[in-house]
Specification:
Blueprint: H1 2-24, H2 26-40, H3 48-67, E1 80-84, E2 90-94, H4 95-101, E3 107-113, E4 122-127, H5 128-151, E5 153-159, H6 164-179, E6 183-189, H7 199-214, E7 220-227, E8 233-238
Parallel strand pairs: 1-4, 5-6
Antiparallel strand pairs: 1-2, 3-4, 6-8, 7-8
Helix pairs in contact: 1-2, 6-7
Length: about 250
């Protein structure tokens, strides 16, 4: 009979340790679950802290994005605003009443001058399509300017021990670029392997380089030459772009 009681006591203790104790001890419960997930190679749910942090970061980024543009429509804090009229005069309007009359799919009330203490903000009614077209044109112009800047500058690399045939080819390239109004930067450095140029050879390369560049009408050496002849040396040239002659579209009479 005593053996039966001890057995029952042992079973009750085991059941308590497995089912009751984890609920009373969250730390132990988490540890057991963590070990269980690790054994089965199942990722654990990290919790809400990181989720809240990520959400805060996203919300903050969205707020920063909004701050980069002018307040518009309901974002305008003032109840009343001064609206720029077609004749550039200003008219006081109640914001909500004005917005109720606008087709907000096509127009937007934009605050162009911030509100100052004791003064109403100045706003304009903007055509969204026109604004989008303006932004698109601005982006395209910036892209074209960047492309034009890239095409208006070229770099030619030489080494001091360059053969005369190769040098003549590079100098012809230099003159072609300058003739088109393209700025050219020439970078000269020692040859890594093979023939090593003497100081006289290096001086001759620079002499031929400058002579070839200055043969182009209007070409000149740009300030900022740097380096040492025979080592690393950089020099730049530029010339005015050629004047485009108008094309005569008139046909000769028979």
């Amino acid at each position: 009979m005593r053996t039966s009681i001890n057995c029952s006591t042992t079973i009750a203790a085991v059941l308590h340790r497995v089912f009751v104790a984890p609920a009373q001890s969250p730390t132990l419960h988490s540890s057991v679950i963590g070990q269980h997930h690790a054994a089965r190679n199942i990722p654990r749910f990290v919790g809400t802290t990181n989720f809240v942090a990520r959400r805060t970061i996203v919300t903050s980024a969205a707020a920063d994005k909004r701050e980069t543009r002018l307040p518009r429509d309901e974002e305008i804090a003032s109840r009343s605003v001064l609206v720029v009229q077609p004749d550039n005069s200003l008219k006081t309007e109640h914001k909500k009443q004005l917005l109720s009359t606008l087709d907000l799919t096509q127009y937007s009330l934009v605050q162009v001058i911030p509100m100052e203490p004791g003064k109403l903000p100045i706003c304009k009614i903007i055509d969204k399509k026109a604004l989008y077209a303006q932004k698109k044109a601005k982006a395209e112009n910036a892209k074209k300017s960047k492309q034009n800047a890239a095409t208006k500058s070229k770099t030619i690399e030489l080494n001091w021990a360059i053969e005369q045939g190769d040098l003549g080819h590079r100098l012809k390239k230099l003159q072609d670029f300058l003739g088109k109004g393209v700025k050219v930067e020439v970078m000269i450095a020692p040859k890594r392997r093979g023939k090593i140029a003497t100081q006289e050879d290096a001086a001759e390369v620079v002499k031929q380089l400058k002579a070839a560049a200055l043969e182009v009408p209007g070409a000149r050496e740009v300030k900022g030459t740097s380096g040492i002849i025979g080592k690393e040396y950089t020099v730049a040239f530029e010339a005015p772009a050629p004047i485009q002659k108008p094309v005569d579209t008139k046909k000769d009479s028979p």
